[in-house]
Design brief:
heterodimer; A: alpha/beta; Aconitase, domain 4; 2 domains; 7-stranded mixed β-sheet; 6 helices; B: alpha/beta; globular; binds iron/sulfur cluster
Chain lengths: 178, 423
């Protein structure tokens, strides 16, 4: 598996799911292209315009504690980020509901201590999914993330939970899942 | 080593003798709930999986709660499409306008959740189901679709945190006050991310089902995976007549492992509030007494139950809501509404100047029925107060108990129901 290389957006404060997808979009269809248009609109005034976040061309998000918290179960938060080109999120911890949705969609939500303290928006990062190392090329620093559970990798390899189950329904092995 | 109640449920529903925190299991799902604005998408996701049929159409519970009655042509159309899907699948348990209620209230009240089983819903406050000793979990559309097709879902077994609650409840103090107290103590989505929160002890055993639902409901706002209370005689009495399904008593073992155990004594607990924008910015009512507001709201899956309107009626009966304050009451379900009518609570409150609306989420999510405008200061018995939650981002929401709302509506400023300011 190749490293992913790109620019990071670094959260300054606590990022809430409510601000990632504003209320008026909760009832919209779950669709990466649609959800990406206004994703993060409530997080930063600069993103509060159509394609505001997407047009910044970020590949990664770096955040602190409880990323995507506030207790919203809508998948739009995840599909919005994916549609906007985000390929991994690094945080010291993640809120449960969106962590689960990220796993189901195969978007890496990677737990990593301290790297948010040593990173600025616009820094170039290289993430190696095979080893879990994150290199900050702008600052010449390296971080080791917490390894993902095997199940998470398995779901990601299948292309998400829906595909994972689809395959098992079609080959009849779904009954054996325990 | 013993197991906690949530571990036992994860084990028994995944065909295991035991589980440990961190373990990944595929567990059997008792019921799946989905509702109006995500329902059609959930069924569409289910269809895309290639399953021949629903795992059990009696255990897929469909509800119209966030959008009824519809405020716009777009939402009316969305509801029509939702109804078409539910009818196409011939879902027996469909709670639509006229028989509606907030999904989480209906799930518990109509016997769709059972002690010792796991139920999920495509809405965050599915944690409410822990009130009867079930694992209740909020999930996304994909998870619900997978469970609808397979009857199963993956779970990581959570670490357990116990709140051992003792002491005597003081007059006018409610489960909501304990919830807000814990919120202030643990911080919003702070130390409890991913944990299962177990509530026990004499002061929990003294709570009726309404209070237990309030407490478990707000565990999602603490960032927890679920909240749970061991079923007891109160649970048994509540469930008899609501479900034919059989269940057995269960509780955590005495030697079960906990990440942390917190002791709370309610004897000294008074009415609590959260200041606008941040749930964990809590304060005792004394600290905020005298603060003016112009709107009040009691309803939601947190505090829209008969007991909540009963305590309001006991305060407002024979008195008047102060001019300049709009008090909106929305029963959490049609059954709650009927009960409040029979008990005379609706009459007492309407005579006092409260407005009643038919059961729904109402303005809680800022979608319809009395949403917030710029400059509004709202005293709400709901569960969330972040910017824009009830409509305008330029409104302020104080969260509190129905007792505080009622006493404050008489004076027009935040008022301690224990004081004689309102009498
Ligand atoms: S009442 Fe409020 S919190 Fe409860 S389900 Fe409805 S919108 Fe959500």
């Amino acid at each position: 598996m190749q490293s992913i290389i790109g620019k990071a957006w670094v959260a300054k404060g606590y990022v809430m799911s409510f601000d990632m997808i504003l209320q008026r979009f909760w009832t919209a269809p779950v669709d990466p292209a649609e959800n990406a248009k206004w994703v993060m609109a409530g997080v930063d005034e600069a993103f509060n315009r159509e394609d505001g976040f997407k047009n910044m061309g970020y590949t990664f998000i770096v955040a602190g504690h409880n990323f995507a918290g506030g207790g919203k179960s809508i998948e739009h938060c995840i599909t919005g980020l994916m549609g906007a080109g985000i390929q991994a999120v690094f945080a010291t911890s993640f809120a449960r509901l969106q962590f689960r949705n990220a796993i189901n969609y195969g978007l890496p939500f990677i737990t990593c201590k301290d790297m948010n303290l040593h990173c600025e928006t616009g820094d170039e990062l290289a993430y190696d999914p095979a080893t879990g190392t994150i290199e900050n090329r702008t600052r010449g620093t390296r971080f080791q993330s917490v390894p993902q559970a095997p199940f998470v990798a398995e779901v990601a390899a299948a292309g998400g939970l829906m595909n994972f189950i689809r395959q098992r329904i079609s080959d009849g092995s779904v009954a054996t899942l325990r | 080593m013993g197991m906690t109640i949530t571990e036992k449920i994860m084990a028994s529903n995944s065909g295991r003798e035991s589980v440990v925190p961190g373990q990944l299991v595929w567990a059997d799902i008792h019921t799946v709930m989905t509702m109006d604005y995500l329902g059609k998408q959930t069924f569409r996701a289910f269809e895309s999986l290639g399953a021949k049929q629903l795992f059990d159409k009696n255990r897929v519970i469909c509800v119209s709660d966030h959008l009824v009655p519809p405020p716009t042509p777009e939402f009316a159309t969305m509801l029509n499409e939702w109804r078409d899907v539910v009818h196409r699948y011939e879902i027996p348990h469909f709670y639509d306008l006229g028989r509606q209620g907030i999904a989480h209230q209906l799930m518990v009240e109509q016997g769709h959740v059972l002690p010792g089983r796991i139920s999920i819903g495509t809405d965050s406050h599915a944690n409410t189901y822990g009130a009867v000793g079930a694992v209740g979990n909020a999930v996304g559309v994909s998870d619900a679709a997978v469970a609808m097709a397979t009857g199963k879902l993956w779970f990581r077994v959570p670490e357990s945190v116990r709140f051992h609650v003792t002491g005597t409840w003081q007059p006018w103090v409610m489960a909501k006050d304990l919830s807000l107290h814990i919120m202030g103590m643990m911080h919003w989505n702070g130390h409890l991310i991913y944990k299962t929160l177990e509530f026990g002890g004499p002061a929990i055993e003294a709570l009726g089902m309404a209070g237990r639902m309030t407490l478990c409901n707000m565990t999602v706002d603490l960032g927890a995976k679920n909240g749970i209370i061991s079923p007891d005689a109160i649970t048994q009495a509540y469930l008899s007549g609501r479900t034919e399904d059989v269940w057995s008593p269960l509780a955590s073992d005495a030697d079960a492992p906990y990440d942390a155990v917190y002791e709370v004594d309610v004897t000294n607990l008074g009415p609590m509030l959260s200041r606008p924008d941040k749930l964990d910015d809590t304060a005792p009512v004394e600290a905020l007494a005298g603060t003016p507001f112009n709107k009040a709201f009691v309803g939601t899956c947190t505090n829209g139950r008969t007991e909540d309107f009963a305590i309001m009626a006991s305060i407002l009966r024979g008195r008047q809501v102060r001019r300049g304050v709009n008090l909106l009451c929305i029963p959490a379900s049609t059954d709650v509404y009927l009960e409040c009518l029979r008990e005379g609570y609706v009459e007492a409150l309407v005579a006092a100047g409260a407005a009643f609306e038919t059961s729904s989420c109402g303005p809680c999510a800022g979608i319809h029925t009395g949403v917030a405008g710029d400059g509004d200061v709202i005293l709400s018995a709901g569960n969330r107060n972040m910017k824009g939650r009830m409509g305008s981002r330029h409104a302020q929401i104080y969260l509190t108990s129905p007792a505080v709302v009622a006493a404050s509506c008489i004076t027009g400023v935040i008022t301690d129901p224990r004081s004689d300011d309102w009498t």
